[in-house]
């Protein structure tokens, strides 16, 4: 059994998708459709930067999605097979869950691009710049991270945002609490705490205004049953129920990304191979979560042709 996985924020880089679009009209068409949907030259920004504009949440989210979907579409063309024929489950890290749903046919590409643009804008607006932040805790499990977050909160918001793998947990909340957490991390037997270069505290209760904006938008968005089940971030379990998917996407804005548990659950469900589209970050996490599975990362045209010839 196989799962297709899709990266989250942080996988963006100037030049992303450029070579793939030059090598494949299929990829180029994906980027053109996203540009049209957003009424924006996003692909030019992806190709040429500037980096500070690409890194903005409202640009990074649809850009990462577009790159991953372009990679998937090219792979489907090269293999002559559909996603339903090639994998058993899909999953994505944070915004990657939208990509996974698009890949599985639950959301069309135009709707996905618009939702992620709105998601990025709403997350940025939810908390004034400088008032919220995030930190990666290296050498921490969820128990250590939870204890640290509680100790650092002191009346502020400070909670687990991402349970990425057995060695990395991300916390999110008020910047004052994040700063305190970094100062006292070693007291909680955590090897290192690193402030992340993000402009908003994702996946915590401070994102409630963004969740409300997404609830309103998702209520008006057509969602179809995915052709393969999606493992949801907030439950770490598979679903193909449209109403449940809609609700889980709203919960995800403020909820914890349970990536470690999701990978373990997919492995327990029989998944022996993971294929990451448009990035290599998740593959590294999967390796740290379980040694029992194979990992393939598809980024370049060569990656795709190698995969197609071996599948």
What's the end-to-end separation, in Å?
A: 13 Å
- Per CATH, the class of the largest domain reads Alpha Beta
Per the principal axes of the C-alpha atoms, what is the gross shape?
A: globular
Q: Whole-number average pLDDT?
A: 95
Q: Hey, roughly how much beta strand do the residues contain?
A: 15-25%
Number of domains: 2
Radius of gyration, in angstroms, nearest whole number: 19 Å
Strand order of the largest sheet: 8-7-2-1-9-10
CATH homologous superfamily placement of the largest domain: Malonyl-Coenzyme A Acyl Carrier Protein, domain 2
Task: Write down how many β-strands occur, each being a DSSP E stretch of 2 or more residues.
Answer: 10
SSE succession: EHHHHHHEHHEHEEHEHEEHHEHEH
- Please name the CATH architecture of the largest domain: 3-Layer(aba) Sandwich
In brief, what are we looking at here?
With 311 residues, this protein is an alpha/beta fold.
Summary tags:
single chain; alpha/beta; Malonyl-Coenzyme A Acyl Carrier Protein, domain 2; Alpha-Beta Plaits; 2 domains; 15 helices; globular
Explain how this protein is built:
The chain is an alpha/beta fold and 311 residues long. It has 15 helices and ten strands. The protein has helices at residues 18-23, 25-38, 42-48, 51-55, 57-79, 83-86, 96-103, 109-126, 142-153, 175-184, 208-219, 242-254, 259-268, 281-289, 301-310; strands at residues 2-6, 89-92, 132-138, 158-165, 168-174, 192-195, 230-231, 238-239, 273-277, 294-298. Strands 8-7-2-1-9-10 form a six-stranded mixed sheet, sandwiched between helices. Strands 4-5-3-6 form a four-stranded antiparallel sheet. Helix 5 packs antiparallel against helix 8 (109-126), helix 5 runs parallel beside helix 15 (301-310) and helix 11 (208-219) runs antiparallel to helix 12. The longest helix has 23 residues, at 57-79. The model has no long low-confidence stretch (mean pLDDT 95).
């Amino acid at each position: 059994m196989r799962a297709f996985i899709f990266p989250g924020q942080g996988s963006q880089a100037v030049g992303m998708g450029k070579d793939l679009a030059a090598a494949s009209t299929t990829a180029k068409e994906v980027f053109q459709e996203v540009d049209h949907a957003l009424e924006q030259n996003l692909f030019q920004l992806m190709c040429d930067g500037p980096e500070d504009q690409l890194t903005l949440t409202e640009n990074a989210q649809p850009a990462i999605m577009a790159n991953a979907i372009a990679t998937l579409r090219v792979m489907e063309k090269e293999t002559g097979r559909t996603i339903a024929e090639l994998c058993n489950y899909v999953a994505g890290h944070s915004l990657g869950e939208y990509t996974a749903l698009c890949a599985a046919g639950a959301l069309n590409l135009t709707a996905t691009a618009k939702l992620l643009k709105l998601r990025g804008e709403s997350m940025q607006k939810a908390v004034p710049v400088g008032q919220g932040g995030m930190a990666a805790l290296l050498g921490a499990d969820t128990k250590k991270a939870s204890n640290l977050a509680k100790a650092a909160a002191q009346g502020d918001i400070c909670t687990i945002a991402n349970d990425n793998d057995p060695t990395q947990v991300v916390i999110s909340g008020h910047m004052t609490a994040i700063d305190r957490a970094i100062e006292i991390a070693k007291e909680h037997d955590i090897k290192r705490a690193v402030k992340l270069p993000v402009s908003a505290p994702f996946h915590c209760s401070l994102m409630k205004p963004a969740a409300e904006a997404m609830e309103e938008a998702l209520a008006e968005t057509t969602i179809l049953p995915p052709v393969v089940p999606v493992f949801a971030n907030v439950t770490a379990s598979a679903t193909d129920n449209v109403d449940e998917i809609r609700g889980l996407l709203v919960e995800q804005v403020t909820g914890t990304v349970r990536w470690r548990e999701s990978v373990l659950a997919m492995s327990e469900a029989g998944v022996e191979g993971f294929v990451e589209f448009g990035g290599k970050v998740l593959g590294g996490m999967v390796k740290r979560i379980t040694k029992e599975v194979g990992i393939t990362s598809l980024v370049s045209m060569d990656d795709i042709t190698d995969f197609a010839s071996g599948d």
